[in-house]
Amino acid sequence: MQPAPAPVPPPPPDDRQLRRVALSGLLGTAVEFYDFLVYGTVAALVFGELFFPRADPAVGTIAAFGTFAAGYLARPLGGIVFGHFGDRLGRKSMLLLTMVLMGTCSFLIGLLPTYDAIGVWAPVLLVALRVAQGLAIGGEWGGAMLMVVEHAERTGGARRRRGLWSSFTQLGAPLGSMLSAGVVTIVSTLPDDEFRSWGWRVPFLLSVVLLAVGLFVRLRVAESPLFTETRTHGPGEPARDKPPLAEVLRRPGPLLLAGCVGIGAFTAQALLTSFMISYAVDHGYTRPQVLTAVTVASCVALAALPAASALSDRVGRRPVVLAGAVASAALAFPVLALVDSGSPGLLILALALGHGLAQSTMYGPLGALLSEMFGTRVRYTGASLGYQLATLVGAGFSPMIASSLLAAHGGGSTPLSLLLCGGAAITALTVWRLRETHTDTLDARTATTPADVSAAEGARP
After folding, report:
1. What value, to the nearest 5°, has the Cα angle with vertex 213 and ends 210 and 219?
2. Mean pLDDT of 257-286
3. Sign for the pseudo-dihedral over CA of 275, 279, 280, 281
4. Residue 379 pLDDT > 50, yes or no?
5. What is the spatial distance between Cα 210 and Cα 277, in angstroms, rounded to a whole number?
6. What secondary structure letter does DSSP report for 156?
7. Exposure string (b/e) for 71-82, b if CB count within 10 Å is 16 or more?
8. What is the pLDDT of residues 121-133, one digit of tens each?
9. DSSP 193-258
10. Residue 5, pLDDT score
11. How many other C-beta atoms are found inside a 10 Å radius of the C-beta of residue 405?
């Protein structure tokens, strides 16, 4: 019998395909974060009174942010579900599905009747749609990030710049935040009664336009070359008989480290964007002033984030993330003092420093770092679940905890500053335990690579 011919690997992607994938990651993630963050922005402004009108104002705000947290609770589950099929069926198909799900849920929130119209069903449906949003974004980030990183691995010398290429996907977060804040800024200039009756719906309904643009770009990208190589087993290689999640949990060290290293970045993101809108308005700022400050901070992040990511290609992921964590902790009390000053100019400066600069320095290298901690056959599951666990702890609960602390202590920014310092400390301690990965080569064959194990077991003592 003649031996079966060896499988022919797919041709390596060219620079044009890599650029297309990077653009897809940027636009797709921006659409996802726009939809996700516009909820938090509107929740801070009107959801308490529209969907929880029988609660007092403080309880209504906590309840509104509770629905915000519900989306974060669903994100790890989304990472598991979409990660499983992304590791088995492919990255591209899951990215198309998550984008459609996210855009549809956002559009439906824009059509949702309020409590006055349908009673208790209004908050119930709101939570259900918010959970579906969480599932979608839980699978979005990992697929978009891996498409860029894995294409870069097979494209000329791009492997040496994985951090820079991955920053295009990371830029989707500040770009989506800027878009959401900008759109809400415009509609918030409406008279209060018009904003509460129909103006708040406009940002959600506009997601249909962004969805169409994102799908147009995403449909034109090719599947990850590393994933394509894993579809065919060479001689003596075991079949993928275990679910990706089981492989990841078999050695949970990298997953735990991945879940902790991003907590500081997401705590800062949540407290200095969505929650800051509610906090600053309660302290005398107008809605347009606060939203303008958030937009300016996002513009700063658009420059700081790729700079930090590119620097991590040269000096390593660990030093850059650690520098961002130290800066976030050092600026925590000064930033909140600037916010409490009552000056719109100082508010812009505060958010530009805390969110635009310090948070972006932590967040920029995170995508490449998490991707480098897992093998190709489990990378979607491992990186997505680690990332979403960080968002759950850092961003999902922070606004609700902050609202509760402020209500219990009668105001004052000290609880917020301590939360920022606590998140930064967790990130700093985790970075100290991590092994440097920026020079590693991504392995296309093994189900759980030696890098996975050494990231935890070979970490710094």
Report:
1. 130
2. 90
3. positive
4. yes
5. 24
6. G
7. bbbbbbbbbbbb
8. 888 888 888 888 8
9. HHHHHTGGGHHHHTHHHHHHHHHHHHTTSPPPHHHHHHTS--TTPPP--S-HHHHHHHS-HHHHHH
10. 46
11. 15
CA 408 to chain centroid, in Å, comes to 30
**pTM for this one?**
0.81
Give exposure, 339-361, as e/b (b: 16+ Cβ within 10 Å): bbeeebebbbbbbbbbbbbbbbb
Residues 205-232: tens digit of each pLDDT: 988 888 888 888 888 888 888 888 776 5
Q: Taking CA 80 as the corner, what is the angle to CA 75 and CA 82, rounded to the nearest 5 degrees?
A: 90
201 Cβ contact list (under 8 Å, min separation 6): 110, 111
DSSP state of 341: T
| φ, ψ at 316 (rounded to 5°) | 110, 155
Contacts (Cβ under 8 Å, ≥6 apart) of 12: 154, 155, 225
Spatial neighbors of 438 by CB under 8 A, at least 6 apart, are: 162, 163, 312, 313, 316, 317, 368, 372
Q: Tell me how crowded residue 32 is: count the other CB atoms within 10 A of its CB.
A: 31
* 86 touches 131 (CB < 8 A): no
With beta carbons less than 8 A apart as the criterion, state whether 375 and 452 touch. yes
Residue 123's nearest CA partner among 51, 49, 39 is 51
> Rounded distance, CA 340 to CA 345, Å?
12
Question: In b/e form, how buried is each residue of 164-196, taking b as 16+ CB within 10 angstroms?
Answer: bbbbbbbbbbbbbbbbbbbbbbebbeeeeeebe
Length of the chain: 461
CB-based contact 93:218 (threshold 8 Å): no
CB 147 within 8 A of CB 168: no
170, 144 contact by CB (below 8 A) = no
Q: How far is CA 14 from CA 155, 193, 223, 385, 390, in A?
A: 6, 54, 13, 30, 34
